[in-house]
Structures are given as structure tokens and as C-alpha cells.
Amino acid sequence: MNEIDTRLLEFNDFFTAVAIIGFIFYVLTAIESIFDVATKRRLEWKQTMANVAIEIGNRILDNTVISAIFIIGFITTEQFAFSTIPVTWWSWLLAIIAVDFTYYWMHRIEHERRILWAVHSVHHSSQEYNLTTALRLSWLESLYEWIFFVPLLLIGFDAIQVLASLFAVVLYQTWIHTEKVDKLGWLDGVLNTPSVHRVHHATNAQYIDKNYGGILILWDRLFGTYQVENEKPVYGLTTQLKSSNPLTINFREFRTIYKDVIRAESASHKVSYALGRTGWKPNERVQKTEGE
């Protein structure tokens, strides 16, 4: 057994709990899907099956190259830490809060930079909003997302503790992808709830670029990106993706970037089209062309 396996084994109870909760989520997702079809709330299966296919792809990748990159990146970075924070009950609390704060900024930057939006837009491209939408995650995100958490490792948080905390933040968000749960009163101003997250997935003008939080929505209130749900959300992208092909869903925006770069008149414009703010155009103010 190598060092990484030994480290992971120390958190075995946590990861076992994650696996159990994940299984329960799959069951609830199947129940919701059957209910929606039986009550004619979901008139066709194409998007649902696309979401399932994308999830299968992610599980294959996570069990091979993707998880290895994530874990090796964490363990390697940890060697350069400036200090060591012991793994205790209070450091768990701090780690989850720190990871949730970092997640807010990672998520926000993924929306604001086009090359990252090309990846993250996969999750927003469905015009349906149900529990299977939580499965619609890009096959490429985990290749780079670990980099955002490097500062936490450098200040001394245990690498596996940070990884486990990120699991907790991501796992929390599975249940909020539903229209079956209405507003939850004061909780909508503290936590990321179904109502809060419906806003995030909507293309309504007042909803775009709002509610980035993972578990806590307090970060959005603090940094001016909070929006309550006050009109019926219209889901998807402002330029809707009319495809249920998992390959198209994952890579369509890269093709769009390529076309813009090829047509650009200068090298600086080429760079801005790819790496600039989402919606950047020459000699124009930034105006987002792909909504949340």
C-alpha cells in the first residue's frame, strides 16, 4: 500500500458515508424521473439520458486519470506548505468553510473567464431542471479545479482533509437541482437551496451571474452576487444548445471559441476571445453571450 492509499484509508469512514449518500441520491434521482414521466412533467427522455451518459463518463474518468491528477496535485502541493494545521474537529470546521469560500470564487471565475466557461457551461446547458441536472458536469473540470485550492494546502490544511471537504461541498449541492422544493424562508438567505440555485441556472436577465455559493449563500450576499427567486426561471443558455449528444454538450463551446479566434483580426484579440472575460468583443463593453 502506497502513501496515498494509506492517507485515504485514514478517512475511510468519511468516504464510505459519501458513497452511501451518493447511492441514495441516485435512487432519489430515479424516483423523481419516473414520477416526472408518469405525471407528464418530463415529456421526453433525451436530456435525462444525456445527463446519465455524461455521469457515466465522469465516473469512468474519476476512477482513472482524473482522480489521479486531482489527488497527486494535492499531495504534491502539500509538500510546499508553510505550516501544518492538525486534523481536529475545529480544523474540519475551518476546512469546510475555507473550501466553501474558495469554491465560491472558483465558481465565479468559471463564469467570468471564457475558456473556463467553455468547460463549466456544460452544467448550465440543460433547459430542464431536475436531479439529473446535478449529474451534468463537464468531463474536463477536474483537470484544473484542484489548482484553486492550492492556497489552502500551502497554509497547512491536510490535503485529504481539503479533498474530503470539497466532496462535502459538492455532495451538498446534489439535492438542490429540483423544482419539487419551494422557497425555504430565511434559509434561502443563508444556504444554497433549490430556490437559490434555480436562480443560478436561469437565463432571465436579472438572474445571470448570481448565486455562486456552494453550501453557504452568505458569500454572494457579501460580494454582491445574491439574487432571490422572484420570477419563473428560464433554464439553459442565452443561446440554447439544441443537442442531447454528450460530446456536443461537452465540447460545443470550444468549437465556438475556435471560430472566434480564427476570425480575430489581431493576436491580442485572439487571446481575449479565448482567455478574456466571457462575452468579450473588440471595441465593445463586455456583454455576456452565454447565460447561466
Verbal overview:
- The chain has twelve helices and no strands.
- It has helices at 3-10, 12-38, 46-62, 65-78, 89-112, 114-124, 150-154, 159-172, 194-200, 218-223, 246-263, 267-275.
- Helix 5 (89-112) crosses helix 6 (114-124) and helix 11 (246-263) runs antiparallel to helix 12 (267-275).
- The longest helix has 27 residues, at 12-38.
- The protein is globular, with a radius of gyration of 20 Å.
- 33% of the residues are buried.
List keywords for this structure.
292 residues; 55% helix; mainly alpha; globular; 12 helices
Q: Name the shape in a single word.
A: globular
**Alpha-beta classification:** mainly alpha
Quantity of strands, as a count: 0
Q: How do the helices and strands follow one another from N- to C-terminus?
A: HHHHHHHHHHHH
Please indicate the percent range of residues in DSSP E strands (runs of 2 or more): under 5%
Which regions have little confidence, pLDDT < 50, spanning 5+ residues? 285-292
Mean pLDDT over all positions: 91
The gyration radius over C-alpha positions equals 20 Å
Topology diagram in text:
Elements: H1 3-10, H2 12-38, H3 46-62, H4 65-78, H5 89-112, H6 114-124, H7 150-154, H8 159-172, H9 194-200, H10 218-223, H11 246-263, H12 267-275
Helix pairs in contact: 2-8, 5-6, 5-8, 6-11, 11-12
How would you summarize what this structure contains?
By secondary structure, this protein is mainly α. The protein has helices at 3-10, 12-38, 46-62, 65-78, 89-112, 114-124, 150-154, 159-172, 194-200, 218-223, 246-263, 267-275. The protein contains 12 helices and no strands.
